[in-house]
Each structure stands twice: as structure tokens, then as C-alpha cells.
Amino acid sequence: MALLEVNHVQKIYKTRFGGNEVQALRDVHFSVEKGEFVAIMGESGSGKTTLLNIMAALDVPTQGSVTIDGKDLSKMKDEERTLYRRNHLGFIFQDFNLLDNFSLEDNILLPLVLAGKKYDEMKAKMMPIVKSLGIESLIAKYPYEVSGGQKQRVAIARSLITAPKILLADEPTGALDSKSSTNLLRQLRDINKQGQTILMVTHSNVAASYADRVMFIKDGEVFHQIYKGDMKRDEMLDKICDAVTVLMRGGEDDEQ
Amino acid sequence: MNNKLIFRLIGSSMQKNKHIRIPFFLVGVFTLMVFYMISTLAYGDGLIRDGAELFYGAGYIQLILGIGSAVIAVVSTILILYANIFIMKDRRREIGLYGILGLPRKSIVKLLTYEALLNVLICLGGGLLLGTFLNKLMLLTLYKLVGQAPVMGFFFSKSAFVLTIALGLGVYLVCLIYNMLSIRLSKPVELLRSNQMGEKEPKVKWFTVISGLISVGAGYFLALNCKSTIDSIGILFMAIMLVIVGTYELFTAGTIAILKAIKNNQKSYYQTKNFVGVANLMYRMKHNAAGLASICVLSSGVILLISCVAALVALGKQNIDMMCPSDVMVRYHATDENVSQQVSDAVAGYSDITVTDYQTLPFWSTVWMHTDDMAAGEFEYLNEEKKYDYNCWIPVYIVTEEMYNQHAKEELHVNTGEVYVFDTKKKHYEELRCGDQNYAVKGTLDRNAIRSVTDTTMTLFDMLYVLVPDEEAAQAMLSADPVLEDADANQVCYVTSFNVDGKLTDAQLQEINGSLAFLGEDGDVKLKQEITDFFMSLYGGALFVGVFMAIIFLVATVLIIYYKQMSEGFEDHHRYQILKKVGLTETEVRSSINRQVMILFFLPLVVAAVHISVASHIIRLFMQVIVYVEPWTFRFAIAGSIAVFAMVYCLVYKVTSGQYYKIVDAAEHVA
Fold first, then answer.
1. pTM, entire model
2. Which of residues 19-58 of A touch B (CB under 8 A)?
3. How many helices, marked H, and strands, marked E, lie in chain B?
4. pLDDT in tens, B297-326
5. Which chain A positions have a beta carbon within 8 Å of B282's beta carbon?
């Protein structure tokens, strides 16, 4: 059985007063195996953020279901879902979402503190992670004292500290310059090589080219998929670019 | 840029920020209304008409109200400015956005000016209108309080009206100038970003912590160790200042020191319930310590005012009875008994006044001194060196055995060299010594029987009442004093007291005063009825001013709390959104917010209650400058005031924390 199964998910938003309906996801169906690194691509408005929110247990689908390790997220209660998210999922956000009144160390430890773990135990879990991310010299500092790339690495450390089943990344390179982006993506790939399942939402072709598989979403449906297989990264990038071009041309045709 | 657009901008901005703007208007209307009401009483003809007091003591009330109106003017200025600064802070982004969208600076200035005009119009108009309606009501209440017959007609004072307008215009002009300067000094992009900068964790300022501890400690020490009313006059102000300074210092630095200590303790810091709270509180304290300290000081002020007023009202009658045990009291000096006879003749000559309980009590009085390092029962004569050290003054009243027994209906007997005493310090001793005189103390006499000998101008001091065998013994006791002239030592004082039936008319009061006028400088005539009228109007005035001040302070407290909650809500919104994304459950968010808000909210109240409890002793002593304050009544008054205040405070907490939670928990917010 796959680690993550998204079964015919449909999401409809109603505007206030029950007027117009907006269909964000029409029928999304796919699964992710353990240890995979999947990128989801799509333009703004394609529904990829909605999809991520549903997979992250932040939102519930109107129809269909999402199961992780055989557990159906959409059947959980609010409180239960929050706890599941805290204990089994890791997040990286475009704008880092670090708390500016905590030191970097405290930011990383946050999910464990919320889970009520002991300090020594937390510290023991944190050290190998910050070492592998190369930020162990920074952890006493505060978010405003470090660069964007470093902040994002702290966010990765925070997401990994609970040993999550899936790491969900929402435009992780969106606020970074190209050098920091490259470093970050390499790190994500390394983490993936160690067995971590990663699901990344992005609209950057370069970022997507680091993944094993790229899924294209358009108008609320999975439109196309590319598997990396034995391809080199630049070949993968070419393929992604081609696919994006096709995707965009299709859009132009629609308008005519 | 046309005016229509500017008005539209003003309108929409007011609508969008109504949760901030409405309190701003309310405070403006309210403070100006109170100022207008108080000054109408102080400067109008409700108390003094055509140079004559409408009722006895009206002049004093007017004086107190005059001072009160000045204080209210200052408080309302500060309050409105504070509210204005708060609003401007919140609006910087909005105004920055106007700049970026291309609204020229000239138009922004125009917008601010129109807005200021609107503020003046609403607040001043509202305040004057409401004030005019409530003025009459207030005057009638006051008349009822002091027993004056109500008058018909409209109650209006031109000078109060003008003063209120001047105050309103002045305050909003200062606000306008502040607003203009604050946008003039910054660039649009900075305005837009102004509340998104990262900031450092606050450092512990150990010097401030220590200085705060010392200040509060010293203030408490002074307050608790104050022994007498005389001391309290000098000490009270200093103690209050020390405690206020210390409170500000401890709120700013002390709280952070405590939070840091918690943070440095890994065991307690890394616990779910402390983790989020400690870090948040630390930043909140950095921003809000001064505001919280102000709330604390203001709350103390409110509680103090309410308790003083309550104690005054509760103790009014008791005080008058103490000051004037009989309806009429006449004190005079005389070297022979002739004067005594004249007084008795004058009283016997009253045509339609029924005199009862007529008594004359001869006594001798002097002043000795007693310092803390002297043993109980040991006194000294006043010497040149200590003459003006009122702290050690002990007025002494000496009566003979015969006169005491006659008044007290007792059968006490003493031989030469023996005395009965009553020491208001309530100390008991076997031996009374002064200079080289020695007396054996046989027991305690009943002061109430001879209370009338007490000089009411000397009630601040501890007193000594002595019973001696006869006149010679009394004179011997005085003439041993090297400072006293023999003539003074031999001078006998008399106090004649009697009661009358029913309430005296003005004519009768005049008749009594006139019949005793022959005593001249040597005599002192006290009519209980006059004193009662005087004190009732004094209490009435104090009550009035006290209640108004308490309300103003309370409004100030509530406003600061409300704005504080608002601004913190906006700051915390972002933080809690992140925490929720990372996996803080709804219940955890709620309990964490509750804990913090409770701490922030009730810290000032608890500190204020402690301050007041510590201060109660010295305040009571200080109040004795005006009236005697019975300790237990005062303690009850304080406890009651704290309870009432705490109730109001909790109510405000309930309302504002609801608002706060709404802001923090809002799914998406404009900021």
C-alpha cells in the first residue's frame, strides 16, 4: 500500500451567502510511495495550494479522501487532525513561519515542546539534524539575525525533528535567491536520499527538477506526470520546461 | 484632490477601524463632559451667587472643585493624547498606502485637519450637550447632599463653557500637530513597513531592577514606619513618589528579570504551558510595561480615592461628636471666677432657647514633650532646641479631683504626689515624670468625661490627661516648668458646655454668638450646628470631587486596558497563526492566550491592591489632618473599595479579552 493516497478528491468553495461556487479541485487522484520526492507544479489558481492544504490536514475535501499510512484524514475530528499534523507531518513554508521571539533552537524544538518531550531528549534529536544541515553554530541566534536561506534551513530542521512520515514543502525556494535556492534543494534531495518522503509544491522549473516525479495540475486535475527514472537533472529540467510550455500553450488556445 | 474624496477616505477609515475609533470618541466626549460639569460648579453661580455663599461651606466646595477641575483637565489631556497616539500608530500603514497610491502630502495634511475638526466637533459637541443636561441633575444631587433647597431654572456658566471649548480645541490641536509631525518625519515605504521589523529579545536591566526594589522597599518602609500624623505630612508625598517610580522600574525591568530566570531554567521553560507564554510575555512586557505600570498607578489612585471618600462619609458624624461633644462649647482663659459668672449670666438670659446640661469645667493646660527614646511615662519640658519639633509635642490637660468626680460621676481620690492619667498612646506606667517632678500613677481616668477640655486644634498630637488632688497641685505641676511664666502657669482655663433643645434658627445662632462676644480674643465659641453644616458641605464637596476623579481615573484605566488589548491582539495574531500551522490545537491556543492575558491583566490589579494595603496606615494618619479616622472603619473602606474596583476591572477584562481573542483568532486579518 502507498504511504499517501489521494482518492478522487474534490473541493468546492462556496462564496459567502451561498452564491457562486468555485471548484478548486475537480478530481485529483494519485498516490505517493514511501521515500519518494514528488513535486507538484501548476500556475497560480490551479488548485495546488488547496491540494497541499488538504494533504496537510489543514482543510478537508468536499468529496473523496486522503489517507496516510492507511489513516483517513478526512474522517478525523479537528483536534485529532491537529495532533496528527503535529506528530506525523512536517512543514516548510515559503515565508519560513519562524517565530521571531524565539531563538532558532527554540523554533526547532517547538513541535517537540508542544508534544511535551523532555529537554535532553529533544536536544539529542535536534543535534544530528542541525549538524547535517550545517546550522549548529547558529542555533543560539534569533530569526532576524540570520539570512533567508539559513531561516529556511531552520524551518527544515523544525519540520524534521518529529521524524515525520511526509515532509510537505510549500514553495520552499520562493523567498530565496538562486544560490540559496540551489543549496536548499540539494539539501532536500540529500534528506530524501536518507529515506524521507517529500512532497513539494512549486512553480519553479528548477526546483521541480530535483524531484523524482513531477505532477502538473491544471484546472483542478492532474494533467501530466514526468518520472525522472535514470535521467540526469538537466535532462529532467528540459522535460519539465517542455511540459510547462505545452501547458501554457494550451492555456493560450483556450483564450482564442 | 477634491474634498469629496477626502471625506470618503475619512469615512471609510473610521468605519474600518471602528473598534478603535469609538472608544476614542467616547473618551473625548466623556472627559470633556466631566470637565465641563465640574467647572460649571466651580465657576458658575450654583454655589456662590452675587458674592454670597448659597449655603454654609459652599466656598470650600468651590475651592475643592476648582482644584479638581484643573486635575481633570490634565488627566483628560494625557488621556486623549494617549488615545490619539495609539490610533496614529495603527494608521501609519494606511497613511503610507495613501502616499504610495499617489495622494500628495498636502492632501494628507488636509485629511488629517478635517479629521481633527471632526473629532473636535463630535467630542466637544457631545461633551457640552451631555454636560448641559447632566449639570442640573448634578446640582440638585449636591443640594440634596448638603440639605439646600432646590432652585428652579437653567444652570449655566459662561466661563465654564469657554474653558471647556478652550480645553477641547487645545487638546485636539496638540493631537493634530503630533499627527502631522509623525507623518512628516517618515517616508511612505517606511510607514507601510513600520510594524514588521524584527527585534531583539529584551535584556535584563539589573540596575533598574535593583533601583526599583530599593524604591518600592523604601516607600513601603516609610509608609509602614510612619508614627504620627505630623510625620505623615512630610513622608506621604515622598513615599508615594518612591513607590510610583519603583513600580515603573519593576514593571519594566523586574518582570523581564523573572521571565528570564524562568527561561534559563530548562526544566520549567521547555514545558508546553510555559514555552509559548514566557517568550510572548517577555516581548509584551518590553512594549507594555510602562502602560501596565500606569494602569497599576491609576488603579491605586482610584481605590484610594474611593476609600477616602467612603471613610469620610462613614466617619462624618463620629468626627463632629468628637470635636464638639455638646451643642455649644465655650472656652476661655480667666484669672478670676468673674468671667465664668458672666458667661453663666449670658446663657441664663436667653429668651427662647432651652438650655440643658449646663457645665463649667476649669482646667490647666500646657505642652510637654516626649520622644521615642524616652521611657513610657517620662516627659520633658519644651526647651528652645525642640520647641518647633512638633513630632514630640504632648499637649497636657490637668483637672482637679473635685471637678473630675463631678463630671465623671466617679469617686476617685489622690493624695499629693499621686495622679490618675490617660495617655492617648494607650501606654500604662507606674510613674509619671517630667523634669524633676515625680508622681505615682494610681490608675487610668475616663477621658470621655472630660473630653471637652481638649483643644480641637491640637488633635493631631498624642495627649496626656492628668488628674491631680487640687488647684495647688496643678499649679505646682505647671510652675515647675522653667520656660513658663508664672502668670501663664497660674492661668486657669474654663470650658463651659451645654445642650439645647431642637434645631436652632439662624436668629438663635446669632443670639448665642452675640451674647458671648464679650469674651473677645480670649474666648472660643463653638456651635455644633455650625460645625455640622460646615463639615457636611466639606464632605459633600469632597465626595463629589472624589467620585468624579475616581470615575475619570477608572475611565482612563479602562481605555488604556482596551487599547492595550487591541494592539497586542494585532501583534499576537501573526504569532498564533504560525503556532497553529506548526500544530498548536485550538484548545492549546485558547489556554495559552488566556494565561497570558490573565497575567497581564491582573498583575497591575494585584500590585495596586498590595500598594494600597501597605499605604492604608500612612494614608489614615494623613487624613487625620482633616478629620479623625477610625482604623477599622478605614480598613473596611479600603477592602470594600478594592472589591468594588476589582469587580469593575473583571467586567472590563471580560469585554476586552473577548475582543482580543476575536482579533488573535481571526482567520485572515488585513495586517
1. 0.73
2. 58
3. 19, 12
4. 888 888 888 888 888 777 777 778 777 888
5. 101
